[in-house]
Amino acid sequence: MIYLDYQATTPLAPEVAAAMRPWIEEKFANPHSPSRWGSEAAAAIEVARDQILTAAALDEGRFSFTGSATEALNWAIKGTAERSERRKLVTIATEHAAVLDSVEWLEGRAYQVVRLAVGADGLVDLGAAREAIDRKTAMVAAMLVNNEIGVIQPVAELAVMAHEAGAVMLCDAVQGFGRMDLPEGADLIAISGHKLHGPKGIGGLWIRKGFEPRPLLHGGGQEQGLRSGTLSTGLCVGLGEAARLATERRDADAMHVAKLFELALATLGEGWTINGTAEARYRGNLNLRRDGLDGARLIYDLRNLAFSLGSACASGSGRPSHVLRALGLGDREARSSIRLGFGRYTGEEELVLACRRIAVAASEQHRAA
Ligand code: PLP
After folding, report:
1. Under 8 Å between Cβ of 205 and 72
2. Strand positions, DSSP E, 211-368
3. CA nearest to 177, candidates 208, 198, 158
4. Residue 181 near residue 171 (C-beta atoms within 8 A)
């Protein structure tokens, strides 16, 4: 099996597994209980929180753990809308479902939602953004790196517009955190453990002081009353260690994926077109199409390779991806697209082998058609 689905999830780093193990196996105390064991767990969670803030280069505000980035995004959007007098939300048509479905939910409750278009390069139209973001806008929500096509949105520019209009800027940094600088000016930043060689079931929201969204979860008042629920020490420690490791390995990881990107393109050969800009993109994501290709059949035929059509959600639904359609691709072009995702633990040889198999199977499909 060759794993090329790094945007869906990443392999757990061995260092992360080792850091988590004692907190899962022996040190099971509730981190919110006052016993010595509980205090020890609480201290480990605070170390993890600091590791995340250091990796994010954020020296102010606070980081609240959540059960996933989906929860962090729901909380940021719904909790900010609730505390604002304004009833307009501006986002991008190519956002993750956690953002799009949250704003749609609010739309059903009389909020106005603007979904900004992107160009064929996948980048948001800043002119349209300038027109849409006004003094009625409560929040602007934009992702740093797109999970389907890897393009990097100009979040810092959107943040300037948001602040000029007195709106809150939310950044979904799930695919970029630990790999690149976080954008300046975001007031709320959502991250996820499992996209960063950390565990699944843990994420979080960084909150600039004064921008605390109303809580989504009520109960024991953990996380300073902002997010109730007993924290899992093991998962928090895992996310902290994943963040620390990402900082330590950031340059090496970036060089590695840049090399893999070129290698994959060279091995796939002629006839492929990259979806989205080739420049402003994270190079561990290669989303491309080939005339006449049936992407779903290719995935089925090459069952020893793990890759996908787009987001895991889009692949499961059988519907063409909303991101590819937003680029202006028709259904046929969208269905002829595949997403290869690679990273820290992908070897050059296995990537070449996988790309050769993909190129051969794609040519066979073409001949048979
Ligand atoms: N945002 C982006 C860009 C993602 O890629 C994902 C994961 O697919 C999420 C949000 C949701 O993250 P989680 O799996 O932690 O809920």
Report:
1. yes
2. 272-274, 285-290, 305-306, 337-341
3. 198
4. no
Strands laid side by side in the 272-274 sheet: 272-274, 285-290, 337-341
pTM for this one?
A: 0.97
Q: Is 307 left (phi over 0), alpha (psi -120 to 50) or beta?
A: beta
Q: Which residue in 318, 89, 50, 87 sits closest to 204, CA to CA? A: 50
Q: Give the pLDDT confidence score for residue 194 in this predicted structure.
A: 98
Cα 62 to Cα 76: distance, rounded to the nearest angstrom: 14
Q: Which of 9, 66, 75, 96 to mutate to test the pocket of ligand 1 (most atoms within 8 A of CB)?
A: 96
| Res 369: pLDDT | 79
Strands 272-274 and 203-207: unpaired
Look at residue 314 in the predicted model and tell me its pLDDT. 53
69 close to ligand 1 (CB < 6 Angstrom): yes
Burial category of 240 from C-beta neighbours within 10 Å (exposed 0-12, middle 13-18, buried 19 and up)? buried
> Active-site positions?
313
pLDDT at 318: 65
Structure tokens at 169: 């800027």
Whether ligand 1 lies within 6 angstroms of the CB of 66 is answered as: no
Q: What angle do CA 223, 199, 80 make, to 5 degrees?
A: 40
Output phi, psi for 229, to 5 deg: 125, 135
Ligand 1 pocket residue status of 96, Cβ below 6 Å: yes
The model's pLDDT over 4-24, given as tens digits with 9 standing for 90+, comes to 999 999 999 999 999 999 999
Q: What is the pLDDT of residue 311?
A: 57
Atom of ligand 1 nearest to the CA of 69: 15
The letter for the amino acid at 72 is A
Q: Label the pairing between strands 305-306 and 2-3.
A: parallel
175 in ligand 1 pocket by Cβ < 6 Å?
yes
- Token pair 């996209």 is found at 195
Which burial class, exposed, middle or buried, applies to 128 when counting CB atoms under 10 A from its CB (0-12, 13-18, 19+)? Answer: middle
Stretches in the chain below the pLDDT threshold 70: 311-318
Which pLDDT belongs to residue 44?
98
Backbone angles phi, psi at 139, to 5 degrees: -150, 145
CB atoms within 10 A of CB 221: 13
